[in-house]
Amino acid sequence: MRISRKIGRFALDRAVLMLLALLALGLAARGWVEDHPQHNPFAPLDIAHPPGWATGIKLAALREDVEECRAVLERGGIAFDVLPSAGDGQCARTDRTVLRGNTIAPASPQMTCPVAAALHVWLTHSARPAAEDILGSPLVRIEHMGTFNCRRIGGGESGNWSEHASGNAIDIAAFVLEDGRRISLTRGWDGPEEEQVFLRTVRDGACASFSTVLSPAYNAAHADHFHFDQAPRMIGGVCR
Asked: Rg of the chain's alpha carbons, rounded to an integer?
C-alpha cells in the first residue's frame, strides 16, 4: 500500500514538474517572439525588420487591407502618393500607389500598395545587401519595364488576365550601381560569374516578398526581366 502511494506521489510530482517546464518554455518562447517581431504574425509589418517566419504572411495580408499597407509604407519612411481609382472591368484599379524618389526608373510607376511594400522589403533586405556583398558597390537604382498594362497573360485575346492589368505587378530589367555599372538580365543572367550570382541571389530573395517571381529560368518570355506580382497564391507562391 505504501509502495503504491509513493509511486502515485512520484507520478504526480513528475507531472507537475513537466507542466512547470512546459510553462517556462512557453513563457520563454513568447518573450523571444516579442523580441523578434519578424517571426510574430500578430506584430505589425515593419520594412526595417529583417525577413522572418511571419513576413510572407504579413505581406500577403496587405492584399486585403490597403489602409494597413499604406501605414506600413509610412512607418518605413517610404514616400508615396495615392491616385484616384481608374479603369473598369478586369482593368479596374482601385489602388493606384505611386512611389516617389529616384530609386526606380522610369520614375513614378503606378502599382498596388502590396507590390510597393513587397518591393521595398526586397530592396532593403535582398537587392541592396546583395549588390554590396557580391558586386562591391551600393545599388542606387532599379530599372523596370512597366507595372500597369491592361492585357491578358501573353498579350492574346483569350486566357487569364495578367496581374499587370490591375497594376499588381512590376517587371525589373536592370540594376544600376553607384560605381556606374549597369547589371541587366539580358547580359548578366548568363554573363560574368559575379553578375550571375547577384541576379540569382536577388531572384531568390524576391521569393520571400512576392507571391509570384518569374525569371529567365522560367521561359524565354522572361529572358530580359524579372516578373514580380502579389496575386493571391497557395502557401509558398510561385518562384521560378
From this structure: 23
Sequence-distant (6+) residues with CB within 8 A of 84 are 96
Name the β-bridge partners of 42.
none
Question: Using CA atoms, how far apart are residues 160 and 155, in angstroms rounded to an integer?
Answer: 10
- Grid coordinates given for 157: 485575346
Residue among 154, 197, 200, 144 at smallest CA distance from 174: 144
Each as own residue / partner, the long-range contacts of residues 60-66 (CB below 8 Å, 24 or more positions apart, any chain) are 60/211, 60/230, 60/232, 62/113, 62/114, 62/117, 62/230, 63/114, 63/230, 63/232, 66/95, 66/113
Q: Is the previous residue joined to 106 through a cis bond, with omega within 30 degrees of 0? A: yes
Please, is 158 exposed, middle or buried when counting C-beta atoms within 10 Å of its C-beta (0-12, 13-18, 19+)? Answer: exposed
pLDDT of residue 156: 86
C-alpha grid cell for residue 62?
Answer: 496587405
Q: Residues 159-184: what's their mean pLDDT?
A: 97
Give per-residue pLDDT as tens, 173-228: 999 999 999 999 999 999 999 999 999 999 999 999 999 999 999 999 999 999 99
Sequential DSSP letters for 37-61: GGG-TTSPP-TTSPP-TTHHHHHHH
* Helix (H) or strand (E) run with residue 186 in it: helix 185-188
**pTM for the model:** 0.85
